[in-house]
Amino acid sequence: MHTAFALTLVFVGCCSNVVFLELLVRDSPGCGNIVTFAQFSFIALEGFIFEANFGRKKPAIPFSNYVIMVTMYFAVSVVNNYALNFNISMPLHMIFRSGSLIANIILGIIILKKRYTITKYVSIALVSLGIFICTIMTAKQVASEPSANEGEGFYPFLRWLFGIAMLTFALLMSARMGIFQETLYKKYGKHSKEALFYNHCLPLPGFLLLASDIYNHSVLFSQSAPVDVPVIGIKAPVMWLYLSMNVLTQYVCIRGVFILTTECTSLTVTLVVTLRKFISLIFSIMYFRNPFTVWHWIGTLVVFIGTLMYTEVWNSVRTLHRGDKEEAKKD
């Protein structure tokens, strides 16, 4: 029952979140900071009330470790959202972040001295190839955009390159944070909900550095066209409505993943998240009519085949199939 509920939260929450994020980005391309701030504030408030018990509950993991983790988490979140300001399309953004497997394995080999099977390395190669195909195809689209002169055509391409560099940095930093969390959990035990609260609460002062940008977008949001809010029956600026729905669906998504990690194996969680990314990508392309060529489709398919290979889904399916045959023979 809990697993089915968690799956519903993940697919409904995460897929809806992508829709509202793209609606925000399409109308206000530089709104990444206010979106991140709103998400962090809401999740921090919920955690302060229900996890930290209004500050009365002491953390199970030393506070100094959370400071390090939060610094990395804040950097990843801000850079990922801010990259959308640099000619990075939403489909490419989603596909590029699917390369987390590559970053995790590379840093795992370097930092934790881990070794992997041939299947794992093949899956890494496939994911890398898929991302490379999509990146190159998008680069050609950006570079070939019509412009009045060469300078105007080259400038968007430079901005796109900077966006790719930001996504690469965020990918590696996210993998490093994952390794750091793994080390902490081995030492102090798993406290995912506590980590979720501190990861969103401690970075809030950092948004003071982005205060002017957040304020400017608040003004722009308030000036957007008013629409009727369902159920409540009042009018509100459409951008604030999009932002509210984005924050709520982000919370639903994160809560769903948290419940899933307590109910299922890591293999199941990885598979669910992978399928969620694929469904979100397809919906984004179809609904918003994002430019997507045949090569983009090939690259996307290769990325997700590689990800499924990494989770060893094929071996699990074969094992389950053999088990069914043995049960049939016994009957």
From TrEMBL:
The chain crosses the membrane at residues 37-54, 66-84, 90-112, 124-142, 154-175, 294-313. Keywords: Membrane, Signal, Sugar transport, Transmembrane, Transmembrane helix, Transport. Its main location: membrane. It is a multi-pass membrane protein. It is found in: Endomembrane system. InterPro entries: SCL35B1-4/HUT1. It holds the Pfam family UAA. PANTHER family: NUCLEOTIDE SUGAR TRANSPORTER SLC35B4, SOLUTE CARRIER FAMILY 35 MEMBER B. Belongs to the nucleotide-sugar transporter family. SLC35B subfamily. This is Solute carrier family 35 member B4. It comes from Huso huso (Beluga).
